[in-house]
Automatic annotation (TrEMBL):
Keywords: Cell outer membrane, Membrane, Signal. It holds the Pfam family SusD-like_3. It is found in: Cell outer membrane. It comes from Niastella vici. GO terms for cellular component: cell outer membrane. It comes from the Bacteria. The lineage of its organism: Bacteria, Pseudomonadati, Bacteroidota, Chitinophagia, Chitinophagales. Residues 320-629 form the RagB/SusD domain. Coiled coil: none annotated. This is Starch-binding protein.
Length: 629
């Protein structure tokens, strides 16, 4: 496995997250700041320290968006899962101002202290010129990498809290007490600062990593431009562009922190940022991923191949779609949580359940929403039970009974979900086609046992590598690293920005359709014309907006990305989807396929942003709290 060698240093400094002195994050034999930058070798270690603050997106215990998006749910309290209460609570609206969960502002409750990360970057930038034995070209690259990291850390805070203090330079130790009491800057100021840092860095970054064996994961030009695209999209989105809910969101001196009038030029800027990022990614060789069958794998059919195209876009390490992967954690624990027990191995934790209500977002096999499809019985989707025909054996168990909800859906539904009667492609299955079928009825191999089961009847199969293996009570995940940025995200953001700036266009259709093609679907215009009750939907800005948002939600379901998308779009309807599932403690289809509502959220626009801890407001009275908290 190829991996970034800075991981060795991440092990050494992992304990630094709770520390407050920067000297705790340089080698033990470096006694002073001056010594840390005396030589190229020690300065490089400090460079890797700046990387060490990247979030552990692969870890369900450290990435709150898995649970808080409500695409994935788990019982609360979920002691069997091993997830901390601070993370579990966010799936059930237990956020608070006294001790916020996933507190990036302070680095508390399973979150990285992002302001400390920014401080580390500033220390590096302020001291790198002291290093005598470093070539000019290398120093420029290191500076560019750290500026981009600094931009990304600001971006993390911006999308979670909105207006933030922008930390351009570290204050000196001798700074006056009042000088450290920074106020929040308007969103536009932070968005522009992030973009400016990246603009300063582009020319000094490599297009690709030459030494892939040792340096994959370090900042490149495509990574930097992808961050800028995300930043510009956030600044242009309804949350921060024309949000009348925030009319009174002001600093204590009356300075407005979010513009309440819509500035369409922001979408034009986002179009340019996405277009440039895509062009440079293509120049670097990035492309949408399709599964390449290993020579030693049994023959697979077209349907299985299509499902693996989708599934391995996430689980195949360093595939050509992955612009940036975080090497600071792997997905072993995540896969143990997401994989159901089956007839090959009987031991997994299996407590991450896919929310049935969230799974309504998947299209029908015709590539349109289930409520729009002329050929799909939406009204009776929960009440009709069907027998699976043998022709569907690649995705569903032949002659088995299942809900109509599971029938005639798009390939991503079957690639991303495991459920009763669904196929499960895995390397170890002792059969010609490597398929087994999941049985979740009471008393079967994947049924409720020892409180370790999906309480909805669905698992996020998307998160589990097909190369995972096991037998009996043993389970060995294939520990891929997490792809933080994928090219498909840039494609869909570009289509979104084009539509918002100019309305429907051939270019917008082209980029949506390329993502749909990987999923085995026809283009939006053709699909809606032939199968939708609203055939003209792709021809209007509002209609295409809905299509792009649904396409994005499907493509990135279970990855945590939609936690942020729902908020920047101001989609309370998505944030308030109830957690639902089947009556999983039953052993007959008629009893099992009864819809149960497990939890009904009640989010308001307060929940678009996370609260700042009350203590921080007390210490720094120049800070104002986010609306309604």
């Amino acid at each position: 496995m190829r991996f970034l060698k800075i991981g060795l240093w991440l092990v050494v400094i992992a304990c630094c997250y709770s520390c407050k002195k920067y000297l705790d994050i340089v080698p033990d034999n470096i006694a002073t700041l001056e010594q840390a930058f005396q030589l190229r070798a020690t300065a490089k270690k400090y460079l890797f320290t700046c990387y060490s603050w990247l979030p552990k997106l692969a870890s369900p215990a450290d990435n709150h968006t898995f649970i808080a998006s409500r695409e994935i749910a788990t019982p609360y309290p979920g002691s069997q899962s091993g997830l901390p209460d601070a993370i579990l609570q966010l799936g059930y609206d237990y956020q608070n101002v006294v001790n916020p969960g996933a507190n990036l502002w302070d680095g508390l409750n399973n979150a990285v202290p992002v302001f400390q990360a920014i401080r580390s970057c500033n220390i590096f930038l302020e001291n790198i010129d002291k290093v005598p034995d470093i070539a000019s070209y290398e120093k420029k690259q290191w500076i560019a990498e750290v500026k981009v990291l600094k931009a990304y850390y600001h971006f993390q805070l911006l999308r979670m809290y909105g207006p933030i203090p922008v930390i351009r330079k570290n204050l000196p130790v001798s700074a006056d007490v009042e000088a450290v009491k920074l106020k929040r800057e308007p969103v536009d100021s932070a968005v522009n600062y992030i973009a400016a840092l990246i603009d300063e860095s582009i020319n000094d970054l490599p297009l690709i990593i030459a030494n892939q064996r040792e340096e994959l994961g370090r900042i490149t030009r495509p990574i930097a431009l992808a961050i800028r695209a995300y930043d510009r999209m956030l600044g242009a989105s309804p949350l921060f562009n024309g949000n009348s809910d925030y009319a009174q969101f002001k600093n204590n001196d009356g300075e407005a922190l979010v513009r309440t009038d819509i500035d369409n030029e922001k979408w034009a800027v986002a179009v340019a940022a996405c277009k440039e990022a895509i062009a440079v990614c293509k120049q670097a060789g990035f492309r949408l991923h399709y599964f390449n069958k290993p020579f030693d794998l049994n023959a697979i059919g077209d349907t299985t191949k299509k499902c693996l195209d989708i599934r391995t876009a996430l689980t195949e390490e360093w595939n050509p779609e992955v612009i940036w992967a975080f090497t600071n954690a792997n997905t072993s624990d995540l896969q143990r949580q997401a994989a159901p027990r089956n007839d090959v191995y009987s031991y997994t934790i299996s407590l991450l359940a896919a929310n049935l209500n969230a799974c309504e977002i998947f299209y029908t096999k015709n590539g349109v929403p289930i409520e729009e499809d002329l050929q799909w019985d939406y009204a009776n989707r929960y009440t009709i039970i069907k027998t699976i025909p043998p022709s569907m054996r690649s995705i569903l168990k032949p002659n088995y009974t299942t809900s109509a909800f599971n029938m005639d859906r798009e390939y991503r539904f079957y690639a991303d979900l495991a459920f009763d009667g669904s196929s499960y492609f895995m390397i170890q299955r002792p059969a010609e086609d490597n398929l087994l079928y999941i049985n979740t009825m009471w008393g079967s191999s994947s049924a409720p046992s020892l409180s370790r089961y999906s309480f909805t009847g669905y698992w996020p199969k998307k998160l589990v590598s097909w190369k995972t293996s096991g037998s009996g009570n043993s389970y060995t995940p294939d520990p891929y690293i997490w792809p933080a940025f994928r090219l498909s995200a840039l494609y869909l953001m570009y289509a979104e920005a084009l539509n918002e700036a100019e309305g429907p266009s051939a270019a917008a259709y082209e980029y949506i359709d390329s993502v749909r093609a990987r999923a085995g679907l026809k283009g939006v215009v053709e699909s809606w014309a032939n199968y939708s009750r609203n055939a003209a939907k792709p021809a209007t800005k509002e209609g295409l907006r809905s299509i792009i948002q649904q396409e994005t939600m499907i493509e990135f379901i279970f990855e945590g990305e939609n936690y942020w998308n729902m908020r920047r779009w101001k989609r309370l309807d998505l944030m308030n989807r109830p957690i639902t599932g089947w009556d999983v403690l039953q052993n007959t289809p008629d009893a099992f396929y009864r819809l149960k509502t497990i939890y009904k959220p009640n989010n308001t626009y307060r929940d678009y942003l996370s609260p700042i801890r009350e203590y921080d407001l007390f210490v720094n009275p120049n800070l104002v709290q986010n609306p309604l908290w």
